[in-house]
User: Which sequence fits this backbone?
């Protein structure tokens, strides 16, 4: 097993300019640490898939360095330790699910056990179906199983849960968490911000080929909301009907902002428990209480709009 702080893959000051003149990745530096799920977020065209392809050795950088397990990503030993699920993944239609999985298992000396793969990708019961006869979501799950076939130390998942129903998505989330818990590294790109929030130890927000924000989900939300001081613990939003004045609330522990809409007051605070304890003592009539976690979506929209 890999140690917790080891860098598994990195881009250093890497630029990728395609032949059509598009600079997809622009002096980008990224580090992936072992045992972590890292979510790469950004609007369409931000350069996420290009960054993944660079780390997979499918695309050569125009300048800068790409390193995976301390060597070139095209090194065969490196490739055997990585698994991938690409956005436009395809597989032969006339092979059965079982055959696909076993062909890929056959490429590796220590593949994942067949039964474990079926379970991980929620494919039980579909083993004898032809790939071509599967629904879009079922095909996605086969591609997920193929990515894990070699029991890789590093897994690239480009939009792995697109088109999946909630049950399959949750099954794949559980598997991604289990991979990280076993010391594996997962780089995930996704359009589902709640997926990044639920899974990622670290979020990297990209726009126009560059990193515009990186950190834990709580840190990214704090930075997106314009509260960089709250980055360590994040913040929460307390909403209630109260007779306490905005000035009074503003002076309470960890309060970052206070606003009022109709009869409801909204208090943004780094220390929701401390603020609430005081508020409940001072205002016995306090009602309609709600405590909300900020949404990653709000941070994402603010961060990508600024750029
Ligand atoms: P994302 O995955 O974040 O949507 P991509 O990495 O796919 O972004 O694309 C980044 C930019 O590079 C886009 O402007 C896209 O049109 C362009 N691009 C991607 N792949 C190629 C390619 N093979 N040839 C030319 N341009 C490309
Ligand atoms: Mg993409």
Assistant:
């Amino acid at each position: 097993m890999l140690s917790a702080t080891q860098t598994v893959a990195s881009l250093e000051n890497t630029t990728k300019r395609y032949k059509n003149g598009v600079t997809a990745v622009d002096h980008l530096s990224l580090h992936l640490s072992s045992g972590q799920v890292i979510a790469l977020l950004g609007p369409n065209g931000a350069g996420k898939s290009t960054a993944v392809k660079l780390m997979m050795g499918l695309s050569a950088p125009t300048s800068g360095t790409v390193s995976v397990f301390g060597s070139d990503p095209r090194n065969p030993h490196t490739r055997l330790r990585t698994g991938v699920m690409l956005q436009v993944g395809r597989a032969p239609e006339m092979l059965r699910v079982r055959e696909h999985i076993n062909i890929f298992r056959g490429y590796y000396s220590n593949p994942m056990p067949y039964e474990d793969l079926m379970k991980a990708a929620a494919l039980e019961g579909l083993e004898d179906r032809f790939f071509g006869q599967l629904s879009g979501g079922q095909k996605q799950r086969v591609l997920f199983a193929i990515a894990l076939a070699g029991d890789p130390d590093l897994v690239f998942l480009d939009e792995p849960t697109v088109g999946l129903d909630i049950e399959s998505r949750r099954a794949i989330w559980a598997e991604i968490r289990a991979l990280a818990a076993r010391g594996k590294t997962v780089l995930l790109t996704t359009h589902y911000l709640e997926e990044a929030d639920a899974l990622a130890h670290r979020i990297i927000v990209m726009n126009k080929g560059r990193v515009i924000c990186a950190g834990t989900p709580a840190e990214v939300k704090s930075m997106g909301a314009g509260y960089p001081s709250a980055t360590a613990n994040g913040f929460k939003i307390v909403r209630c009907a109260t007779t306490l004045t905005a000035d009074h609330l503003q002076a309470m522990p960890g309060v970052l902002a206070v606003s009022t809409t109709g009869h409801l007051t909204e208090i943004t605070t780094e220390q929701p428990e401390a603020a609430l304890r005081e508020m409940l003592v001072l205002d016995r009539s306090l009602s309609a209480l709600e405590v909300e976690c900020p949404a990653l979506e709000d941070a994402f929209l603010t961060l990508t709009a600024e750029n």
User: Anything to note?
Assistant: The radius of gyration is 23 Å. The pocket of adenosine-5'-diphosphate (ligand 1) is lined by residues 18, 20, 22, 24, 42, 44-50 (CB under 6 Å).
